[in-house]
Protein 1
Amino acid sequence: MSVKPRPRGKLVAIGGAEDKSAKAAILGRVLKLSNSETPVVGVITTASSIPDEVYPAYEEAFDALGAGEVLDVRIRERRDADDPKMVEMIRRCDVLFISGGDQMRLTSIFGASKSLEAIRSIYHEGAVIAGTSAGAACQSTTMVYGGSAIDSLRKGAVKMSAGFGLIEGVIIDTHFLERGRFSRLMEVGATNPEYLGIGLGEDAAVLFEGGIIKAFGPGHVILVDSSRITSCNVFDLSDGEAVSVHNVVMHALVEGDGYNLADRQVLSAKQLGAESLELKDAYT
Amino acid sequence: MSVKPRPRGKLVAIGGAEDKSAKAAILGRVLKLSNSETPVVGVITTASSIPDEVYPAYEEAFDALGAGEVLDVRIRERRDADDPKMVEMIRRCDVLFISGGDQMRLTSIFGASKSLEAIRSIYHEGAVIAGTSAGAACQSTTMVYGGSAIDSLRKGAVKMSAGFGLIEGVIIDTHFLERGRFSRLMEVGATNPEYLGIGLGEDAAVLFEGGIIKAFGPGHVILVDSSRITSCNVFDLSDGEAVSVHNVVMHALVEGDGYNLADRQVLSAKQLGAESLELKDAYT
């Protein structure tokens, strides 16, 4: 959209239900992306209504995967999000991981807080910010927070709000294949074709780095590109009426595939070339 | 949110139903902001379903107010938005005016088009971009496009989507006092307190310039600042349930008042000081 200094950090969005075992493909790579032997990993469970169950599972997983230290960044209400102790914890992180739950908990509790400022600032300085499910959906400027999977291609069916703004020009949806959410991102694209829909399957992830998306993990990543839609009736409808939209382009990416956000081109593992090799180094 | 080169142009959002007579306070000022004696003014009526009525009214108004030339940038479908003639017309404009209607027509037709690229680029190079009603609502990164005025403080009642992204960190609503839309921006703020709600009354406007908002015109501008909300239940609700939100701060601005977006402080005409004088020069 305009020239903006690119964050030096790395952003990872995960589709939910990622493997947390010792073989965890995605979580293991998230740690490796930090380029630290013993990264400090902070876990934010604000999105979840059961943090006492969620946190220990991640603590164990990250410990097993080689974290130097795992921090429980326990933010439950708005006042916690301005607590200097929480801000200090976030600032220490090489990797900050945002758990699943409800993305509106994240935006409503973190919006305009010192903790959110700290997240942005470590991201710009070089940290890895990763999130799964709600923790992925919240990353974009405008986010999806609801909408029936059965038929969201009806005006007003998809619920959107303002997200954390860590990545521009995309809208991220999760549990995408498992819950059949294709129609949600088709409606989103109809309302504004400029936004690339990123539908993350479970145990699938994307890395955003330097204007390129890279898919990884065992699952699928579906891209919904509405930039070339030729016509659409969404503005002629009342709420609940069926949306027509022509010429939506979709891509199903798997591990090793990439995508150039600027020119909207899929990049095969081969085309990613040197960059891909570089990634492999970081991963293994 | 991050360091971004500030556009050299000026952005004006108008609440709708602005005076179009020879005394038109707001439209007259919009032309003056161009610092051109005889500005070229382009009018985009894409949001409207009756462009043949809307365009001539603005043509007459801008002619009477001293435009050097008024251009009918007639974009009705997505293919028009990529038409080089339209792009060329937009690039000639000192002032680009976006009429009212339905903001979803604007985003759905302009999204990912060459015309939208041209609008962004003239804005960054120094042009005045102004819009009324739908033409104002579309300016932010996340926009409101619907929601009952009677009671929008219910989860999911406010309809949001991705806008043109000309201004970050705010969400603009229009016809605000006339249609009693306070509850819409209160719900928006509850979902993400980081976003300042700007509720524009009819025949009221704001100028965005250098991180400052300046109110002008005969009507009111209501600011809804949710950044200090202490608690909110929106994430605990199902769709349609009543949202609670505590400590929302509102300001009613009139002509001459300002607001600093970074520190969320109202600036009186006096506090605007030299800047205010400068504005007056530009206005008269």
Protein 2
Amino acid sequence: MDRERVRELLERLRSGEIEVGDALESLARLPFVDVPGARVDTHRALRAGLPEVVYAPGKTPEQVVEIVSALRGAGQDVLVTRVEPELAARVRERAPEADHDETARLLWFGPAEVAPVGKGSIAVVCAGTSDLPVAAEACGVARRFGNKVELLVDVGVAGLHRLLASSEVLRAARVLIVVAGMEGALPSVVGGLVDKPVIAVPTSVGYGAAFGGVAALLGMLTSCASNVTVVNIDNGFGAAYVATLINRL
Amino acid sequence: MDRERVRELLERLRSGEIEVGDALESLARLPFVDVPGARVDTHRALRAGLPEVVYAPGKTPEQVVEIVSALRGAGQDVLVTRVEPELAARVRERAPEADHDETARLLWFGPAEVAPVGKGSIAVVCAGTSDLPVAAEACGVARRFGNKVELLVDVGVAGLHRLLASSEVLRAARVLIVVAGMEGALPSVVGGLVDKPVIAVPTSVGYGAAFGGVAALLGMLTSCASNVTVVNIDNGFGAAYVATLINRL
Amino acid sequence: MDRERVRELLERLRSGEIEVGDALESLARLPFVDVPGARVDTHRALRAGLPEVVYAPGKTPEQVVEIVSALRGAGQDVLVTRVEPELAARVRERAPEADHDETARLLWFGPAEVAPVGKGSIAVVCAGTSDLPVAAEACGVARRFGNKVELLVDVGVAGLHRLLASSEVLRAARVLIVVAGMEGALPSVVGGLVDKPVIAVPTSVGYGAAFGGVAALLGMLTSCASNVTVVNIDNGFGAAYVATLINRL
Amino acid sequence: MDRERVRELLERLRSGEIEVGDALESLARLPFVDVPGARVDTHRALRAGLPEVVYAPGKTPEQVVEIVSALRGAGQDVLVTRVEPELAARVRERAPEADHDETARLLWFGPAEVAPVGKGSIAVVCAGTSDLPVAAEACGVARRFGNKVELLVDVGVAGLHRLLASSEVLRAARVLIVVAGMEGALPSVVGGLVDKPVIAVPTSVGYGAAFGGVAALLGMLTSCASNVTVVNIDNGFGAAYVATLINRL
Amino acid sequence: MDRERVRELLERLRSGEIEVGDALESLARLPFVDVPGARVDTHRALRAGLPEVVYAPGKTPEQVVEIVSALRGAGQDVLVTRVEPELAARVRERAPEADHDETARLLWFGPAEVAPVGKGSIAVVCAGTSDLPVAAEACGVARRFGNKVELLVDVGVAGLHRLLASSEVLRAARVLIVVAGMEGALPSVVGGLVDKPVIAVPTSVGYGAAFGGVAALLGMLTSCASNVTVVNIDNGFGAAYVATLINRL
Amino acid sequence: MDRERVRELLERLRSGEIEVGDALESLARLPFVDVPGARVDTHRALRAGLPEVVYAPGKTPEQVVEIVSALRGAGQDVLVTRVEPELAARVRERAPEADHDETARLLWFGPAEVAPVGKGSIAVVCAGTSDLPVAAEACGVARRFGNKVELLVDVGVAGLHRLLASSEVLRAARVLIVVAGMEGALPSVVGGLVDKPVIAVPTSVGYGAAFGGVAALLGMLTSCASNVTVVNIDNGFGAAYVATLINRL
Amino acid sequence: MDRERVRELLERLRSGEIEVGDALESLARLPFVDVPGARVDTHRALRAGLPEVVYAPGKTPEQVVEIVSALRGAGQDVLVTRVEPELAARVRERAPEADHDETARLLWFGPAEVAPVGKGSIAVVCAGTSDLPVAAEACGVARRFGNKVELLVDVGVAGLHRLLASSEVLRAARVLIVVAGMEGALPSVVGGLVDKPVIAVPTSVGYGAAFGGVAALLGMLTSCASNVTVVNIDNGFGAAYVATLINRL
Amino acid sequence: MDRERVRELLERLRSGEIEVGDALESLARLPFVDVPGARVDTHRALRAGLPEVVYAPGKTPEQVVEIVSALRGAGQDVLVTRVEPELAARVRERAPEADHDETARLLWFGPAEVAPVGKGSIAVVCAGTSDLPVAAEACGVARRFGNKVELLVDVGVAGLHRLLASSEVLRAARVLIVVAGMEGALPSVVGGLVDKPVIAVPTSVGYGAAFGGVAALLGMLTSCASNVTVVNIDNGFGAAYVATLINRL
């Protein structure tokens, strides 16, 4: 589309409709006009057909409301991530239509049910109950991004029977997100059971030598399963984002 | 298929063809028979329709030749990775049909050209010439795994014009592999230019605070582009493996 | 000047105005007399023609007021850095003339507008809104130190178009300060667009593998752009200080 | 026993057989007499009924031969660990009776078969072929220390079926040693399959984020299986030593 | 037992009591049925004859009470670990029969005295008073798991005489748990005094270069005493769990 | 002395005053009798002629009062270190005679002035005002341990003239304690100015790459001045303890 | 200039000289044409008026010769950095006109003396003789980039008198490069003596806790002197590059 | 003395013997004249009455011989440290009078026996035979610096009886150097046995989690014995240097 807008500009110059100076100015600035009042980049959403995403930490409730309003005014669905309870309460005072998922720490401004656009389902596999907030973020984001999602909880590697009992769910997925803290071994095991891409999310769950997710992160990066890639510690959003892109291919 | 073999076993038990004790024994052992002489797992290849892969480090030339022979005897194509020149020379003395890609450190036993099975192309983007061995590994593996591959070299972030000049190649790819050492910033920039999954490969290129790839690894994990996932330092093979799985979806 | 004061001392000794013992004493102590009551070194300010700077953390409001009073009494402009809101409030109770910049965490005792002494302008480039406090500190300090400053916000590397749209601002600067957290890639990209010195400031913005600014720090130290030097994590003040020295050359 | 020797000493003093000065001297020195010529502590072997162990690194062939001779002269069996091929060759020139296990890097001076003293068997489980030298050290040491040993190789977590096929071997063991590099996930999986103590040995196998065994070490320390304890990276000897003590209980 | 259930299933299939489809289904799912309402794995307890253990962090008081009720309803003894005072108070409001050990941070639902099942005693050796909470956890768990326990406190390596005065207690134990922070040297010294397995628990006690237990952890992993294995920082529970398994052998 | 007590014991046995069994018992237990009620080791104080020291963190006010009472009852002077204001207030309610030094976080039970026992003076050199609490701890401890102490504050390496102005104080000291955070360069500079032992104390002062004192610690350990040894981060007490021992030689 | 080329293109389109399609194509590709045969970016040199720089590691002698020839053919001066002796010898066989500086590991293709373009002098200050190769690289590069350079060697902080004796050289410089390994304290001290920008270069000199330059790097980043910025470990080239840019302002 | 030289200079100026310009010049340069040809600082030796020390790494045999000659010509004794065998051989070709201690890696130019100047003896305590080179360096340096030295070898903490048997040697020392690798626990134990200053030297001995001496370093820094200070990993020289200064007090 950008290319088209440039072509159109050039045609207008050719036909004498506009002057060289104007064309030069437009060429320099064209694709970068911001939403007024919010300085939010709407290009990504336009390009990928996804809702806008606002990362909450470091923003005041006022700022969040303002940005959401600007984007809603522009007809966009909006997802706010990493929303602490206090922020959620204050935003909903002003914008009561917001859908709040506490465990996933998400605020959603959009249709209650998003029709699936992805071609298959995404399995979100969660090692322990403490990893649930990160897994819930992945699920919540993936659903709002138009994916069918299956969530498996409490299937850590020290109790293999549960995981194996769910192997059909695993094999049915088009792409998998595996969330684990502590030693982060679950992606290796899941990766060995399927022949689909596995996105591993280390969590900061654990104590001592878990070092806030470093043990899990290193374990996932050095996984002996070749179909595993890794995102940042606790980054359920990022995993869901990439899984969405893959599921739309 | 395994399920089918179990069903068949149960049918034979039901019909009295075999005894309970035998069935019990078979159920315990069934899907795990190894290739004789090599103890190589052929399940993955069977499952995913990919060539067998042998990781060379820590194996003697004799062992490599032996494993390759066993697999070739079983009708498999074989790819050997991380092959140092000396090992390559010694293997080719005995198996002169091997195709050796020095830069990529690959030995290939299979058809000269592998017909593309992947649905689109994979772009391999390489920050600098020092990162080339890792990028070449990614390319070489992806091609043998049946993908169309485009390689872009020397498009580091400190010289954006080159990268931008290639943006159509980037946008044409179905999945991208971005290889970079030092500060590892390239995946963030490429990730912002496309709306496809980007697999980032940090390399051990650099000195001092590069810490053998750690700086690049951390940079990629904390990328501000949401469509980036990461594999281990120098793991061109893993990136190509996952890209292949995605490209077949 | 010190040399001149020593010469003068020696002349007075030679002429018999003072005794050997006094000269000896003076030679030992001469250039090190402190401001009474505050033990603040005024040499730096005298030497470089800059306001005095007081680093607030670890000082009580009383101590800050006392030091400021001593320095103001000596005719100095004073800048207090890293001022938390509570400290600012308590200082302004007693010294209501103080100018407080909340975002930049600065208290300023001096003229509302400082006339530019620097020869060109300093561009402060800020990757994301979360990095703004550090960028604001750099701006606020640079302005009080007599520089013309241009601030660019929200021009992260995953959305190159915004940065490129501002390339004339970048090229117009005599020295640039680039502030970024997470993967810290912005200085490499900016460094490739200009041929002026770039001072990179990593911020502690980010989570997980950002490790409180370490990822950004390592990324900046290993930048593939040769015109980048680095200061400590979150050290907006230090960047502005060096940029000022450069801008006065 | 020491207590007995002290009692005997006191009795002799009481009866006037020896003088106070002599008793005082003996009390200070008694249990610490060294083997002449070798300064090797024989207490451990005497106490625990185990062969003497000599750690080779940092010792010359001459020193190894000398120490072995002294110990053999004292009637002890001797095990030398971490023996590089060159050292082995030079020691065997002078002491051809030594039994050399190349993979395990052990030299053994003692009976070809050591009768089992341990009450059950020790299972040594090895994730990949690259981990074999460490696993072989554990096996070799455990056998010379009088244990029945079962070795399972190539049962990594990304190919669970092999491991599960061997679950009876696992369950039959009285204590298990699990050796793994890279992400070090195997002890967690094995730990979940048995209710016996599992000693985890991280290996330095792997590259990049494996950090020479650190990833495996952290993974094992943070294992979600409660029956896992850990020894140092590559410390097959230590694992066998502790497993022996447990197997004799 | 599982094996028996499978045999029984096969017998019923053989006799025509059930159909192939049902048998297939049962074979896939059999050993993994969860306790209704609590999703808690009761296999471990059944297998090892131990109480169920609930790790409190990240669970609400309601969840803890619910899980405990489900397990108590199933006739299980239950131990809750890492219980903060506030949680303990709230749980005991609803379940006043709980036995609360504040120092050890344990809640116990079971008989006041658990009859010893372990064959010998476990010595818990604690370097300093600051390490006491971790040592108390180890003691409290070991006692509820049916072991006779001896606790030695304040026997750090810089005051050897106290430790040596207790050497009979050390030698009388069948297995030892040694808890230490700071430099973590105590396991090496204790390991040299006994010929039994020593489980070392580093604690997060200390400041500066103690790095939250890392100094102690590294010290224990590199111990020059061969009979030492290590668990995670502050993991008194894990040490007691393994010691229990060893003590039952 | 211990040797003498043993000799005396042996003499009494020889003379028949006591029995072998009693002697045996006494020999095992003799030098390790604790102060009743407090389990505090009084050996160190007796041996070195120093006050008892109680490290406050992790102790309740009640415990501190109890320990102090026991020691005071035994005629000992007592120093409590790392005392937070709240603890100090609560202890002084019950023991109003305690001397509280807030900056140094010390409580002192003993004479207002301790007569110097050390042979010379100890210079405590402090880089910046933020390092003052650690330096004050070193001073406060050294004075109560009977040393003459000189304190130099605010003599950081970026303003050498102040340090050089005090060089006579530095040269007059018998042993020096140098306290610095951030880059920790001061001990190197001081070490080059004197030929006496310098004890370097890194502090946790600083931010970003100071890493809580690690930068200073590494800088001090790698000092190019050969007369520098190092203690733990913020360990003003330890530095004063060693300086006292040296000053008494 | 680029802007001018675009304007010219637009004028030609306007006048009908070229077609819209061609203009579109040219707009996409224009400023990014590479030097034929060498793929070397000549933009930087053109922009900044500096010689081309080739980083040698990872290039074969043939590649170095080829790149140099291409650049020399284009009329450029060329500097090759990090040249090991063997590479230098092989390059000079083919290109004997190359000027080789062994200590600095530089090969230079250009005039023997480069006329100073920088406005003042650059002082390169080197802590110890072991840091000399890095300092020599900085000097050699700065001279070929057209700067007057003063080198001070062996002026470490533990022997302040030498540094102070050279203070006039320090004060005369327009910008300073300070090279130091071990504790890296020299930039702090130099920074306190001058009011010019100081570029600190940590070196990998040292052992133990120097950690290959990390101690020096952290020390420089946390310097208490505000006029210090830092480049990567051993990066003498980068320091000279930035110093050149500053010296030309 | 410097003060005296300045006074003398001032007297000569007062009396008209010299001019103001000369006095000024002399005041600036006076105490910093270097030894011609060698640029070696002789101040330290003059000040402290110690031999000159040359650190060999990074110097050619020619440089070492040249420096030694210059210093010998100036009447100084010289000690060269960290001398590898090849360097030693080449130096002794030209200077056969050098005394070479291979284990300690020292070359000595001075009297065969140095008369003790230190007031007491220094005990060097060495944990294991692998730590011997570092301990030997400490001994060799301390003896050439005029101290009486006692060496205890192989007294690691896992075999306490040997250490305790030597406790009189420990108690007789005026200052102790304790050398240990691996967990570095020995200084804590020795520190508890004596009331003299203990200088701890971590060594790089060990593997895996020893991390090249880091485990020992951290252990020593966090020692629970208050009389322990620490030097850099493997820094036997530094320990001996400080011990010498203490022993002369």
